[in-house]
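Minimal example, chain plus 2'-deoxycytidine-5'-monophosphate.
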Amino acid sequence: MDKLIVTIDGPSGSGKSTLAKLLACREGFFYIDTGALYRSIACLFSTKPTPKELDKLSVLWKKVNTEYHLFVSNRDMEPCIRGEEVGKNASIIAKLPFVREFVNNVVRENVNRGKYVVEGRDVGSVIFPEAQVKIYLQADLKERATRRAKELHIQKDIILDKIKERDEKDITRKDSPLVIPEGAHVIDTTNKTQEKVYTEVISLLK
Ligand code: DC
């Protein structure tokens, strides 16, 4: 097969990145995190960018040691994009249709021959509706908050409301809201280990 695309959609803390990283590490998939690009745009432009400013950016996902990082105009964005405040701002600029169009085009341009796992909030529904395998991950809000709190080393109560707010924005936006893509395999990860989720997804690839 000259191109295999696996898409993973779902809300914050549902386990998208964990699963995508396992597929990259164990199965040799090239990993594209679309949220990283929305986060990077939110980081680079304190007010909203213009379409011209976006067009000047060069965007590339590259392997750094064992992980994939996003480079924007040759800058490794990983150190500055993971905080919850950046996530909130990313969700705000993600409402803008020209920003979505830019991200979608860049992501499609970065997918050539080979095996790709692409994660986000509209990847199986809008960017790659033709993907061979589509996954939608979900989990209880409390469990998602626990996971994010652990990841960001902050208190669960602080993050819970922020996740709720971000869910609301992502689900209700007019352009490409977070939905279960047609034909997607829905996996609830609330009470499942990473290995269990991984094994379920691997069985879908066979
Ligand atoms: O997955 P994440 O937390 O890194 O994403 C940050 C925000 O970016 C998310 O709240 C909404 C936006 N996003 C989006 O609108 N579409 C995507 N495909 C990926 C992310």
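The chain has one domain: 3-205. The two ends are 13 Å apart (CA to CA).
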